[in-house]
Amino acid sequence: MKCTSTIAILMATYNGAAYLSQQLDSLLGQTFADWHLYIHDDGSTDGTNDILARYADVYPQQITVFDYPSQGGACRNFLSLLERVDAPYYMFCDQDDVWLSGKIEKTFHRMQEEEGRHGKSPVIVHSDLCLVDARLNRLSPSFIRDQQIKIDKIKTFDDYASTNTVTGCAMMLNQEARQIMKRPYDKALMHDAWICLSVAANDGIVGFIDEPLVLYRQHGDNTLGARDMSKFTWLSKLRNLRRMMRDTIAHYHEMNAVRPISPLSFVKSKIRYKKG
Questions:
Q1: Of 1, 36, 175, 231, which is least packed with CB atoms within 10 Å of its CB?
Q2: pTM for this one?
């Protein structure tokens, strides 16, 4: 589908009725209005589809709800939307966050700056996030600092492979970044990491806005979220060792599918990042 707006916002939903209206209202309250929201639900059994139908009926010029089979998870759902919509620029929107009113405007302005410096290269721009609880009470003013992500140390493909620094709901990508994305997606764990790795592997640009533009809601139903490392005891770390090893192996296969790298180089990149 051809998007007639400058920015296509892609939203993957699943049983998101509790917070969905608040997120949709935050999009409608943005200072930048040249966008269109495309949504696909992955088989919700709560009131999600009723909410989507209501908003699409009231705002048909800005909201389109797709009807096609379930994709079986957030990663495939987001990537399916990316394949179906043709637009100059893209943003991803989670169903349970709140976007600050200047998020689209500030992100697009930074995107234009990066393209002005580098031409029509593959470009990603992402921002910091403010961590909040289910009721939007602030937990941490900076996701990047809370998770100890060393943005200034991440420059090469190996650096991006060592840790996922770009959060989907905080990112924008241009059409050039979409075009160079590695396909097929069978090894992709999450859409944001897959896109970031693809851009890094093709010498693309990753710009960072050191300002939280999203209220990143943390609650019991998050598909993914921030981890409170202070709550991990040594016993819980041991219990989670198998899961951590499984995740690390899957992450290696994801990275290797984008650009081949030896297991030794992968381990070295993670150790180098940890040392800073």
A1: 231
A2: 0.90
